[in-house]
Amino acid sequence: MRPLVRTLWSLAWLAAAPAAADGPSVTDAWVRATPPGARTAAVYMTVNGAATADRLLGAATPAADAVEIHANVAENGTTRMERLPALAVPAGAGVRLEPGGAHLMLIGLAAPLAPGTKVALSLELETAGTIEIEVPVVDARANAHAH
Amino acid sequence: MHGRTRTRTEGVVSADAARRSVPAAVAVVAAALGLAAWLVLDTRLSTPPEINGYVLATPRELPGVALVDEHGAQIRPENLRGHWSLLYFGYTYCPDVCPLTLVALASFKRELETQGVALPVEYYLVSVDPKRDTPERLREYVAYFDPELHGLTGSPQELAKLATATDAVFDVPDAQDGDNYLVSHSSSVVVLDPAARVRAVLAPPHEPSRMVADFTAVAAYGTASH
Lengths: 147, 226
Fold this sequence. Notes:
A: 147 residues, globular, B: two-stranded antiparallel sheet, 10 strands, elongated
């Protein structure tokens, strides 16, 4: 199963690479290292806008069963995580996914995410196609010097 | 008496009066200053401090809820007496705001220690998701952020009573699709005083140094006025 997945990933990457050249780019991506037993994790990044607006439609990773786009909706002192069908990537400015705001939620982690490792993530954009990124796992606890 | 003196010579009387009234004036001014200071201080202590969140004018008792801690031990409000308590409602499957807030609480804890604030404080993640968050699960989760953080949970009914009393809210979906479902919850931090009464609610964003300033103001107000 694994080699097949990897092959498909490579193919997806080859197919997507030319399409993504003029599209949005991703910087500052990181994923929160998981506490013991956690089955979920949040991925943050900046999706830099291209000349034209685009939309992030979803993502996939071999590290988890599913990836969802989430936003934190503040409402009457409550935080509600809401699944978004897509996230707008405005031309130029782009969009920031950051703690306490929008993020990609990895659901059903295959294994805990250890700091120093990386997670392969495939982002699907409406116009630009697929962007493949390697997301570093970061220990964002107060005593860890990161972010 | 005074009138008669005044008819003698103006200058002598003035000098005499001045000699007598200087200490008197000083006393009056000092008294006024003291009164003003006392009034200002009293106002400051009897008016809840302005914080990022709000302070209850009258502390609120907790109802007799039965909860379990991260070791599976039963916890009732009386077990929360003798120290300040910071309560945050969340759940361990929460990937973003819960880790963010627990990191903030752990930073707050360290900053209190750094600043030498001697108040005893305990920290609790109250899981509103008892179906997935067993005491064991809570224990390993909170310890990851700081070995001294605690976990609390309970039946949905007990959690609802606690939430109502602490101005917290949460919503667990009725139809729980396997192990993957999302829970809504307050993003505030509830401050209980050493009598286990609700004293204040700290609103997000939880910035540790602001939380320290707000908490110490709440504690000073609580100690002075009640």
